[in-house]
Design brief:
By secondary structure, the protein is of the alpha/beta class. The strands form two sheets. The protein has a nine-stranded mixed sheet, sandwiched between helices. Strands 7-8 form a two-stranded antiparallel ribbon. Helix 4 runs parallel beside helix 6. The longest helix has 26 residues. The radius of gyration is 17 Å and the shape is globular.
Length: 239
């Protein structure tokens, strides 16, 4: 693996909820403090793509609802999370933070422009990207892989609810076996559910490695930068 100077992290919206609330400011705070600690310890140039599943998912819409409008609602939910996370980051540190959105909402954020995003990262600013790709029918998986390419990231960090990739669904099959390393080709051949097809096609083309891990292990990211992938699954062009 090459030296990781710049990475992009996908955080599911569910992380920003708790048992009683769809939006938890305490959870924004917890995530923000972990990100601050990671950056201070590693000097990593980091972009973060936030989901909005704690508030609304476009695919939750009933069959009679226009799915493109439902997807638009989902995009807006990611922006709410982006604002919440930015606030927590600014409140907890002096780390320079920027929120960029693919949807034009200039009162609350900067528009996402890849050259501007690269500029922020070059100047060691933490960049939060919300709004997905800004168009319907594309998931935040697709967004994070596209942004990884545009922002010249060395690694995609996919925070999940399980600790890596398994040969079958570990939530259903208690005998499922965890796979520590895979190639892009093996992932496709074995039809492993890592990302949606569009996202994975982008990864295969750009050859940017993907590390899948449990979001509860977010604080372990510094270990990844040292080459320790034992707490998740690393997917690369070659093993």
């Amino acid at each position: 693996m090459i030296k990781i100077k710049r990475a992009i992290l996908k955080i599911s919206g569910e992380l920003f909820a708790d048992k009683n609330n769809h939006i938890s400011f305490e959870q924004y705070d917890i995530v923000a403090k972990q990100l601050i600690a990671i950056i201070k310890q590693t000097k990593l140039e980091l972009a973060v793509v936030v989901g909005g599943g704690n508030i609304f998912r476009g695919r939750q819409a009933s069959f009679f609802v226009d799915h493109t409008e439902a997807d638009s609602m989902g995009m807006l939910s990611t922006i709410i999370n982006g604002i919440g996370l930015r606030e927590a980051l600014i409140r907890n540190s002096t780390i320079d933070t920027r929120l960029m959105t693919t949807v034009n909402i200039y009162q609350f954020s900067e528009p996402y422009i890849r050259a501007k995003g690269r500029h922020h990262l070059n100047n060691h600013r933490l960049v939060i990207i919300a709004g997905g790709l800004g168009i319907p029918n594309f998931s935040t998986d697709s967004a994070v892989t596209q942004f990884a390419d545009e922002l010249n990231c060395n690694l995609i960090l996919k925070a999940s609810t399980i600790d890596g990739v398994y040969d079958s669904d570990p939530k259903i099959n208690l005998q499922a076996k965890k796979i520590l390393s895979l190639t892009f080709q093996q992932t496709l051949e074995q039809k492993l559910n890592v990302m949606d097809r569009t996202a994975f096609a982008i990864c295969e083309k750009t050859k940017i490695p993907i590390f899948v891990f449990n979001i509860k292990d977010l604080h372990k990211i510094p270990q990844v930068l040292k080459g320790d992938y034992s707490f998740g699954t690393i997917i690369t062009e070659k093993i």
